[in-house]
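Margin note from the TA: students keep mixing up input and output lines. Inputs are the sequences; the output is the structure of the whole complex. Example:
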Amino acid sequence: MQREFLMGNEAIGKAAVAAGVNVVAGYPGTPSTEVLETIAKENDGSIYVEWSVNEKCALEVAAGASYSGARTLVTMKQVGLNVASDPLMSLEYVGIKGGMIVLVADDPGPISSQTEQDTRTFAQYSKVPCFDPSDAKEAYEMVFEAFELSEKYNTPVFLRPTTRVCHSYQSIDVREYREYEDHRPEGFVKDSKRWVIFPKLSFANHAKIEERNAALSDEFSSAPRNVLTEGSCRKGIVSQGISYANVIDIIDEAKMEGKQIPSLLKISTPFPFPDKLASVFLREVDEVLVIEELDPYIEKQLLEVCGKYGINVRIDGKLTGDVARSGENLPDLVYQYVYDFMEWETKTHVSLETPELPVRPPVLCAGCPHRASFYAVKLAMKGRETIFAGDIGCYTLGNAMPLDMVDTCLCMGAGLGISQGVGRVKPDTKCFAFVGDSTFFASAIPGVVNAVYNQADMTLIVLDNSTTAMTGHQPHPGTGKTMMGEFTDKIDIENILRGIGVETVIRQDPFKLDEAVANVKKVADEPGVKAVIFEAPCAVLFKPETPYDVDNNKCVDCRKCIREIGCPGVIIKDGRVAIDETLCNGCGLCSQICPVDAIGKAGRE
Amino acid sequence: MSTTNIILCGVGGQGTVLASKLTAAASMAKGLEVRSAETIGMAQRGGSVMSYLRIGQTPTPLIRKGCVDLIIGFEPAETVRMLPYLKKGGTVITADRALMPVTAALVGSDYQGEQMTSFLGSLEGDAIGKLVIVDTDAALKDLGSPKVMNMVLLGAAARGGFLGEVTIDDIRQALVKKVKPQFHELNFKALEYARV
């Protein structure tokens, strides 16, 4: 073993490699992305690693590999599980051969997601066993346990860390290379009675799964991961994940102050729920507080256990209004919950009166090509009735003032359908859907087929920056690179669109503003489905060009540059418009909209 | 048993993460436990970012308000934003150059760094035990690179003895391991730059 300072996601990735994982597939999504990236980095060539085109494909690739006896890992964020849910629901009924971990990162807050859905609830719904780590060290160890459990019971297993586990670092002991397991899959063995799902098979396997999960509930009741700590009073706290870590921090402090300590129960295997262990805990206490994030999942399980075992205990939590129904359990909140429940006197912390602080929402980077694209469409459609359906990615930030160019955002690829639907209600609306290149491949193609087939009238704007920018620049089918380090033929978006039957497809440099505006106008007025592909690389990936500056003798202080495009590089310094040379990347968009030609490349004549 | 609780804060892209990782590496080299947590994702695009860093035995990387020993701020308003976390009498080390958010420019707000630094100054000796304000523009001019501001701030913290058991030598040794040799001299200079 050796000690390393690892992010939760790195720990999970390293553990999978050490456990002899053979095939890894996933789709990027915060907070899950670094797991697969770590494995690609650690790969000695013996592991097959891919960014799949979406989570459904990833899960299916892993299923095939697992049928062949390979140890597999699939990675995604919680909303990605919605995309992968179709194959997963059935896979649980069919079962697997090589151990399979489905890593789903949940995002309480939510910090960077559309929903606060809870994979523990999904585990119960899909009947797939679930591990819930409370820090990087536990996540590392759980990977080995999850593979073993998966192989023992021929079932996929969820590992569901939350953002604070995924993205927190910890010094932990990890295996050295010579301690790595070597797992050699035998290959696919034909057996249609096993691998082809039919109602008869589903009926038989459903019964087996329920039987197995009942047995697993017992097994988890004696698993050392679920920790029961006896207290010195008749109160108890049940918790999980990072919330548990925050509870322990507070209880340790209270212990040192000589307070009466509640009994504690940590649930690390939420499904199947360890009923017996919970019943032992519940019999020792008169009142219980459940501190968990997302759904009142444990709380409901405890209520069930009380009914099943005839235990008369009061259970406080989200359902009773004692714990917030949404958001994270940050330490200050947990402190309040614990102190209120224990009826301890809280130490008041005097908060300072601070001067008014600037609001700092995330924005498109200086030089981001999406800004230029949005602005061109905005100018082209000025005065027209429009819908600008957005999508998931950096370009969702196009909704911010002053661009204000995203009217809707729902889920990956949804913009296409939404703009078609809006057009069905009011046909004279100019309907636009904006989609990034990675999202285009992941889930927008069926939306284009739908539009062409059903003869919609809409304009598709593809914002092609040749990368998956929001999640940290992962390759995708349009980039010509794979996670195995190979170069492949790029899949061309224009060819796809033409193949589907979109006749008008224009490739446009968004930084040629006048030309871009003219082309968008022209294209939007054609009937049927048509597309503009705005092509310019992500500003983060390239060295900035010569920055621009403002000629104070020419500038009339109209501030059009600030009012119209909202670039973080254009600032007000000492009461005048200026360009922050450390941020400017030389895209020149501001110089194209200045009415008095006051902005130009630094050092110009 | 006692832990050293630190918050590093700034605006996405300012280098808070490297400073936090370097401190962690220096701590581990001394056999100390470390935990940290940081902002990743959408907020990185010009939003407020912060890292928690805890040196010593603790079950969680997250810290309650009023429990932080040291705030290292890369931007004055972000430093002020984190003040509720500071323990009474704790230490604040901050850069003084304000980064104006797009929203402030839009509404014509005149947010200036001085307003923040003078507010911090008014708390010194009471809520803030020790305050170090680094002149960002002077540092950039003297050192010639905007990339080492994180080392200027971290150096001030280490030399002032605010990183618990971690010393400036520990930071220097960690830096040698993490940073390419051609940048060592510049970074060493940056570590020594601020007056503490």
